[in-house]
Backbone:
């Protein structure tokens, strides 16, 4: 049994991932005591007295978890690949918020010049991907408005998340290459996994069971 005084903080990713994570947590016996989607608060108590939840941007989840400010987290694989996950355990794929990280370019692309200009938020992933292939590219860091960058002459291609493909089509782009299949993963702080092993393992087991039920 875990000690009753032991507590676990789980950092969740705001938006679609939160919407898809909350039902899994509920089935695992962890339900926030307030509506997390309509609150300005960032920390929430739950029906499980040893568990509280944080909500934040996906890019911040691995930072909180690696530094021990949260014991566990739920984030998209895209955020984890970009962050570089050596300081974290990634024990569970929840199988939710599926999408692809892709290279996309204009449908009527002119032959690229000597050096492809690629706009992306994911500069770490893109740098590694093109380097592994020995392709010389110029990376342009953007935080949004990616899909319009080629039409405005800012870039020749983009690296971004594609779900339905509607955003690409609406902006005259087409998918070219898949860099990674993305889904949401549970991450755990390495020290917490040792110190709070029983409670964390119990939560992981329950979450794995809820994720499995949702996948069938
Ligand atoms: C993502 C991504 C694309 C869009 C793709 O943005 O950046 O713009 O979804 O989805 P689609 O293929 O179904 O059109 P999101 O809305 O998650 O917000 P973001 O711009 O903050 O990433």
Residues:
């Amino acid at each position: 049994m875990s000690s009753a005084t032991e507590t676990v903080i789980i950092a969740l990713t705001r938006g679609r991932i939160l919407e898809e994570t909350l039902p899994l947590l509920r089935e695992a016996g962890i339900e926030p005591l307030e509506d997390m989607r309509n609150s300005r608060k960032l920390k929430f108590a739950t029906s499980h007295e040893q568990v509280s939840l944080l909500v934040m941007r996906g890019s911040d989840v691995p930072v909180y978890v690696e530094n021990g400010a949260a014991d566990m987290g739920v984030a998209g694989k895209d955020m984890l690949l970009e962050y570089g996950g050596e300081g974290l355990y990634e024990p569970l794929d929840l199988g939710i918020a599926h999408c692809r990280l892709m290279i996309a370019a204009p449908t009527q692309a002119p032959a690229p010049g000597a050096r492809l200009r690629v706009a992306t938020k994911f500069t770490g992933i893109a740098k590694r991907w093109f380097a592994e292939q020995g392709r010389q590219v110029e990376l342009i860091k953007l935080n949004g408005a990616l899909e319009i960058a080629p039409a405005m002459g800012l870039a020749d291609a983009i690296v971004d998340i594609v779900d339905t493909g509607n955003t690409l089509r609406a902006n005259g782009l087409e998918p070219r290459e898949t860099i990674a299949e993305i889904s949401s993963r549970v991450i755990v702080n390495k020290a917490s996994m040792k110190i709070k092993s029983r409670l964390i393992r119990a939560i992981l087991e329950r979450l794995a069971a809820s994720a499995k039920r949702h996948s069938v």
